[in-house]
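User: Fold both of these, please.

Assistant: Here is the first one.
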Amino acid sequence: MKNNDSINSSGLPDRSLSKTCFRLVFSLLLVTFGFQQTEASPIDSDTEIADVQEREVTGVVKDNTGMPLPGANVLVKGTTVGTQTDFDGKFSLMVPAGSNIIEISFISFETKQIDVTGKDNIEVQLAPSAARLDDVVIVGSRGKPRTSFDSPVPVDNLQTGELEQTGKGVLDQQLMHKVPSYTSTQQPISDAAAHFSPADLRGLFPSRTLVLVNGKRKNASALVYSYVTPGRGEVGVDMKAVPSAALERVEILRDGAAAQYGSDAVAGVINLVLKEESDPFINTSYSVTTEGDGEQYKLSTGFGVDINDKGYANFTFNYFDQKRSQRAGTITSLDDEAGYWGITDSTPYNTSDLRAFLNRNPSAGFQVGLPDMTITNFAYNTGYTLDEETKTEIYSFGSLANRSGSAPQFARVPYWVSGFEQIYPGTDFFLAEMAPQIQDYTFSLGLKTTYNEWDFDLSSTLGRNRIDYYINNSFNQSFGASSPSDFYNGAHQFSHIVNNLDVVRTFEDTGLNSLTVAFGAEHRTENFVTEEGEFASYGDGTPDDPTDRTGSESFGGFRPENASNDYRSNLGIYTDITADITEDFLLGGALRYENYSDFGSNVSWKLNSRYKTLDDKLSIRGSLSSGFRAPALHQVYYTAITTTLTENGIQQNGILNNADPALRALGIPELDAETSFNIGAGVTYRFTKNIGLTMDVYQIDVDDRIVLSGQVTPTGEPTNPIDQTLASVNVGAAGFFLNAIDTRTKGIDIVLSYSNLEIGEGSLGGSIAANFNKTEVMGTNFPDFIRQNNLEDALFSREDVSRVESWRPRSKIIGTANYEINKFSTNLSLMHYGKVTYRHPSNPADDATYGSKLLTDLSFGYEITDKINVTVGANNLFNVYPDTFAEAYSANGGIPNDRNLDFVGRFKYPWQTTQFGLDGTRIFTNLNFKF
């Protein structure tokens, strides 16, 4: 018979968690043969008479589908006499004389009281609990199942339905609108990063959040965020690769967990839990901005099947299509534009030419906004029980994503790049577009079994992300009329193979309430590949002319010398012990050893505790942990040439790989691991069954944090190592990765949750959640060569400091309310984004603060039938945008002194510090079918 267990948002059991619960609880009860019982203390001399009169009551406890519930608590009301059900949901209990009421409870089910007067055998069926506060989470603990209120560390638990309520089409944007501590903003004009939206958790950039799928490590993307936007130099997981329609829930562990899960889990862990079963469904959605652009269409479909009552299989297909939007500004001053480019009345392209061009093209051909994007996803999750007695199960899950798109880059005008009329006749400008082809897949195969009361999980996971870079509508000036317009610029690919062995057992005969012992090993092999592009994407068509520009405009192709194929491996061994010393007091710890083939070893540890009081309403919890993050292979071997805006104007910049011997001449050491220290403390309080509050403070110190430096420029002395290094790679400036800074992040998370509150004839649910954080750069770690040549500001300027400290909102508050009455529902969300501050690399007069904003989402739903429902709504109902450059620099006449910041008006809104995107109001509709 197929096992079922915890409750999802539709009231159906979630078997992935249930099977974990079954194994843990059954192994405990085997120790005590199912008859463990806490006896009432003697109260008088009549105890012997009472013992004679007590009687045995047996029974079975099942869920709403008729499946047995192992581990359900059975208590004689008003006494301390109790027991738990065994693997088959059965129990046997000695009921004292004079007691007739038995209370039966289980996580995620409603507690039930049964009168056993005159009965010696009963059958009890528990109904699912509508209170979301009792939902179980599995991330962060390998022991007995716990709710987010019982967990010793803070964990968010988001059901698929909550994500869909946001009206957003991809997972990273759905999380952005539900979780205050998670930020993922669409960045305009940022090369391939425009297709990925770098994310951070608890104020730390994407490299420091570990992403799991069904508890197994998800591969990182192949992209290094090399543009000068938040997340510069970082590597993260492609959160658009897994469709939310395939998920049962998303668990977000907001605590350092490197000792439990390995590298990258400095800020926390995101666990994507796939569905095990679902009724056949088709979900469609469409949205468009009130400007009439940025259309998004999504189609999701899927179904689940039983396999001979011993297994399950669930399949999901998802299609998402997005059209670009336009939020560019206009050139604010003819004189400033002419001065920026050095145009005068006497230059070949003179002031009159410029005036005529701007009359025809007020934005100088610029486009700022969402890119075109098409995503096709497939995901599956399956398992089959081979032997019920040993609970041996084979399982597999995976996802496949293909993504294409096109993001406009900086428009090339004739007074910047000349000669393009040879391949674009009759045009005023050309708009190069970054059009990558992105593939991402995950495949996992594993076997679970139980032997001698120990649970074993052996698995192997393959993951790969590949980006083929194409630049369309571009031009290689050195090729002139023979230049292609479209280029293949090469590829990046990252893949890993992860082998895991996890062993766990929970003891209940140790004198403690329970003791869970877990240990295991992980072996991981990683591979990062750079493939060269076609010759026209990087080559010089006129090598005898040193004045022309070479390579495809906006993004030069990877040269043969950039090509690489690099591997590394690591082995991790861990142990994780959790002691429920009493039902109220928990103490846990973890220790992990990791050894990397390229930089050495690391040991990390963690301690956490939780104490419940006030009749289990109040919990006090805390954690201490050390952690680490291994440098990504990308950060060691990445090289590229890009065109960016700097305070010195538009510049071609090179990024040198950290393994390049030339960097040793500059005193730049090989990359080492970041190390971290986390302190967390919090309280949870349950006012009622349906209302609860969690508050958690944290401090995260990261030492030797890896950053992508600013650009080092020539000194003008040919014999200087700097000039020689730059000349060797043929760029005007170059950056590189190094362990440059130490940071401290402090914050507080507050979540007030409420569900199933009866208001009139309907019910109300939702939450008020907030994150407040502050990151400070505590110190820098520059080599002697850098200090001796006064290159500190070039490597890590005021701007770089502010990118870490203040380019993301330091506060984010989300309040949601969902009211359901009969067939109608309405959902209201209020999102407050704190201010952000930009600091100029060298001129404090060009610093700017962009004010806080409040956004409102509102939607209405109606169940046409039991199988069909429709939702219409609006994101950002009141059409709120970030402050404009004109508002931020109002004291300076509405423009910055450094016109690179707004590119002489082409950018109307800040592109470095975007808080929540540039869509404005978006109207959406969802139509969902079940079969």
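And the second sequence with its predicted structure:
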Amino acid sequence: MQRDTFAGIDNILLSLGLDESGSFADSPSGDSEETSSGDSQSTQSAVSEQTKTASPDQHAASPESESGEAEPGKPVIGDITRDNYDQARAHLAKIEAARRLAKANEKPQSDSPPNKYPSLRGASEFSPKAPDSLEQAGLNLSDVMNLIIKYLASRGVETGYKIALQIGLNFGLVEAILRQLKIERLAAYKNAIAGGDYLYELTDLGRERARILSDQTTYFGTAPVPLEQYIASVHAQSLEGRKPSLNAIRRAFSDLDISDRMISNIGQAIHSGRGMFLYGPPGNGKTSMAERVTKSFGDTIWIPRAIIASGEILRLYDPNRHREVPISDDAELKVDGRWVRIERPTIVAGGELQMDNLEITYIRKTGVGEAPLQMKANCGTLLIDDFGRQRMSTDELLNRWIVPLEQRHDYLHLESGRTIQVPFDQLIIFSSNLEPRDLVDDAFLRRIPYKIEVKDATEDEFRALFCKQATQQKFSYTNEVIDYMIIEHYVQANRPFRFCHPRDLLRQILNRCSLHNLPREITKDSIDQAVENYFSIM
């Protein structure tokens, strides 16, 4: 669900005096099913009296142009333009659509148990359907009430529809909970707005309750998804068993110049679903290859924004590591708003990786936990880059992951001391320019079935790559100059051909041309200066 989309629209609705159909109100509107209580009737009457005394004709006026004449086609009410009026109408339509969907989802009671894991599609294409009840959402009434109370304490005054957006549940469910808050004198109607919605605020009793709740946990975001529902979603969207075609893998690596044999080796590792070890000299594209593995699967997944496990809330969605994929407005009303659709994740951890990153991290004084890296990488790829250069020892890291790699699940410790089991379901890739035998023992290497050496380029591969990139950057050159570079600076210097060198040397030459306002031409002088700068201490 998109937040803050309708900021300021409620004030426009109040100013316009619109009724539930979106037309101007010049008579009291009838009570809807949702506003049948005594308090609702009195509030509606108050608003109706206000709108009765101010008919559209009294307010309708055209905005004045600079010459003082009315601008045609832009009627206003006060300072509200037709554009804002249209926004208000759209807001009303959203409210009504949400309410109609909630009513349509109401089903007669049956003897069969409710579906705990509703999905818009089959298991092969998981998509979380908006729950019809709190039981189906895996939540209880007090949990949701507490979130709403803390949210209202933060916002002061808010509409019921935007409270529903914040919590991630459909409007019909949240409306009923807001009525319960009013019955318990924790919240009150500040004003009625069009569409049968209200502006809500906390009472003194509600503000006191919010203060007590915030001492336990400050979280008032999207309602969390139960751990068991998250586990079911991982199994439904797992990489295991998904075998992208060779053409799909080629497309994922199309921007890299790698051999067919390397594509085949990596493709086999992808089909295994178990992981791989990329090793070899630096500068040959190990990291670039690993980052493109996830693209070969070419689809998206759904993850909860937050998870609740044994009463504790863990944040899973990380906007810094996950890339959200928007959905249409029509689908938004049908999908459980507690979930977010993302590209299959590629989580990268380099030399900065510490053991704390592999455990739940608790944010001080908030009572909220942050999911570890391997959990954020579920249904995607986890890349351990520069393996062997982490701050912790390789033995410590490997011992931490021997069981998860074998059993495909991990154990995490909550702040309360309880232990939970979560899926360990990702393609794990280790990338290193160190010799694997010097880093790990045979027991661990056995659990990483594919060990792929990324070798230096041959002279022919280097020449072809340099010429290709020079042409793409619109450099002019001759074969004589390329021969000079290879013989003088590589063969005679006994320097290895690395796949990164053409890109890096061409950048040096481009900067030289830019500084001295020279044409884009590769000469012996430009190559000599680029080599001098780049290889001076290498």
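The longest strand covers residues 187-192.
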